[in-house]
Amino acid sequence: MAQPVRHPDLGNIHVVKNAVNLRVLRIFPYQPTPERGEHTDTVLSEFGYSEQEIAELREGGCLKQPDSDRAFSGSGLTLGTLEHQVSSWL
After folding, report:
1. Which of 20, 51, 61, 62 could pair with 57 in a Cys bridge, judged by C-beta atoms 3.0 to 4.6 Å apart?
2. What distance in Å separates the CA atoms of residue 7 and residue 38, rounded to the nearest whole number?
3. How far is the C-alpha of 90 from the C-alpha of 88, rounded, in Å?
């Protein structure tokens, strides 16, 4: 149920495969999840925010992004320990 995927920062990682495998359907290729905040500017732009407004939100602290090695904010769980835990299940 695991699929190896190349992550730009972590190298090779495993993600959970789709539980349903229908050969008639084309499933999107497996890829790593986006980094937290990776698409923030794009999403805000699609909602009509200008680059200036997004910059002001960021400067005002509304768009703070956690450290990139944190998997879950406040949990103390890092991507390294998460990957180790998942690897132990495989």
Report:
1. 62
2. 14
3. 6
CB hemisphere CA count around 43 (13 angstroms): 6
Answer for the pair 78, 9: CB distance below 8 angstroms, yes or no.
no
Q: Two tokens at 9?
A: 């920062």
pLDDT, one tens digit per residue, over 46-84 is 999 999 999 999 888 888 665 554 444 444 445 555 565
The residue among 11, 13, 7 whose CA lies nearest residue 38 is 7
**Residue whose tokens read 């997004």:** 54
Considering only CA atoms, which of 28, 26, 2, 29 is closest in space to residue 88? 2
Contact 16, 88 (CB under 8 A): no
CB 13 within 8 A of CB 3: no
pLDDT tens digits for range 15-37: 877 777 666 666 666 667 777 78
